[in-house]
DNA sequence: AGAAGTTGCGCG
DNA sequence: AAAGCGCGCAACTTCT
């Protein structure tokens, strides 16, 4: 950080078990300015008061540990520096000479899937850890300050905001209409048998499959048994995956594919999921910011990131509220064009459909080809339709292609690559390194060399994708943080939505998935919230790429709130 | 019996 | 093993 604005206060907040907490005002280097001891009884109101009067940046061990309790008490934090999340970034970053010394004390904690305890102190909050905390924030601030470009400062702010947003979204929940979900299940799977057992439509397909396979007792969920049965009737597939089955012409295929689809829906998001995960009109998934090495979020429980599109209609605003649903089309290739400052690719990215722009460039003939070529470029395809099309992009977008090709080369050589804001890929593990050096010797088994080469290529594909996926994650993080910031400015709702907990009277983010958001807003604020989502996207683009002209268009809808 | 690994499929 | 990246989860199989 090149400088902290005058009057900007940072407060290290550490819980000290049953005794309460200690708050330490720190300067830009993390040195103590003054210290306040707070009893457990006054903690919540103290934090609330200071939040309102000082608007500090709270330095906390982890939002996941302390924020659920505050939210349950109705206290929202605006800005934090999340030591656990930032530790991971600053430890691995390759954009400064001396990254943070890694420490096992600062590894992510297991998410607590249960109910939030009131300001749960956690087990690591003994007296000794206070000095560790001070030491850690000072070390982190040193690394951030060493980056004269301020990218790590921005990344840490955004990542920390993500830590808050993840907990806020869980507290608010996704408004979920169980009746709609149930209706979809009944329509698709058939009536749910009273005594358990298979829903009607599923049973019909299963019977058809067993009939065509000539085995009325066959257990369809066992791949081994199913495969044997398929072989018996001459369907010579190597696996029971749908792509391979769909290549075969045989009367058993249609009902089998239909059965697999229904079976998947039932086991992943059927009635059992509904009763386990939807309570009081809300789905409350556990988000894990930074859970993926690239910086993307992961989730734990509920399969939040895999909700089938078929169930989207079950996401339903409360009475008097509506939903803003927004996503970015082709976020990753847009990030690539801007990172590489590739004006030709940015030109193709103008407007809603980047693939149409690629076709217009003359590189490929159809939109479908454009899509395969672009995805292949970012994923490192070398064979098949996709691999065949990639070289054409090298002619029209040499700068963009050079960026991903260089990232791949670095990865193959065992090197590290970084995103726009300085999140760096992990180093190769010891096994990988050993495998590579073992393959360079004089008389090495050719199979060994080939295997090592394969592993090197594999890592190249990972680093190739890392820079793009990771930068897209950074864009999304800033987008989220800016949306949240703008929603905060909106007034209280005319009609409360009690199920939203701390957000019962306020517009809030309800769902986030890589490049899309759902915002739950009072009806009367729909237009203002939509504007906030759009402005936030523009800000994210500008923060990452300055004046470089890259379009990041949103597909944004204000949901119609139909009567049931 | 329970852990660990595999398969297949949902999402971006 | 789809043609290439990143995930989580359920159900089954295999290992201990």
Cα radius of gyration in angstroms: 26 Å
Biggest sheet: strands, sense, closure? 5 strands, mixed
Overall average residue pLDDT: 92
Number of helices: 20
Q: Give the strand order of the largest sheet, numbering strands 1, 2, ... along the chain.
A: 3-2-1-4-5
Q: Fraction of residues in helices?
A: 40-55%
Structural class: alpha+beta
The low-confidence runs, each spanning 5 or more residues with pLDDT under 50, are 115-128
Shape: globular
Cα distance spanning the termini: 53 Å
Strand content: 5-15%
- Counting DSSP E segments of at least 2 residues, the number of strands comes to 14
Description:
With 564 residues, the protein is α+β, with helices and mostly antiparallel strands. Among the domains are: 1-148, no CATH class; 178-277, Up-down Bundle (Taq DNA Polymerase, Chain T, domain 4), CATH 1.20.1060; 331-469, DNA polymerase, domain 1 (Orthogonal Bundle). The protein has helices spanning 43-54, 63-72, 83-92, 128-146, 151-172, 178-189, 200-213, 223-232, 242-245, 253-269, 271-277, 331-339, 343-348, 354-360, 367-379, 384-396, 398-412, 430-438, 446-488, 526-545; strands spanning 10-15, 21-26, 32-38, 57-60, 79-82, 174-175, 278-279, 282-283, 286-288, 298-300, 321-328, 508-512, 516-522, 554-558. It has a five-stranded mixed beta sheet. The protein has a four-stranded antiparallel beta sheet with strand order 12-13-11-14. Helix 10 packs parallel to helix 11 (271-277), helix 12 packs across helix 17 (398-412) and helix 19 (446-488) packs across helix 20 (526-545). The longest helix is centred in the C-terminal third of the chain and has 43 residues, at 446-488. The chain is globular, with a radius of gyration of 26 Å. The termini are far apart.
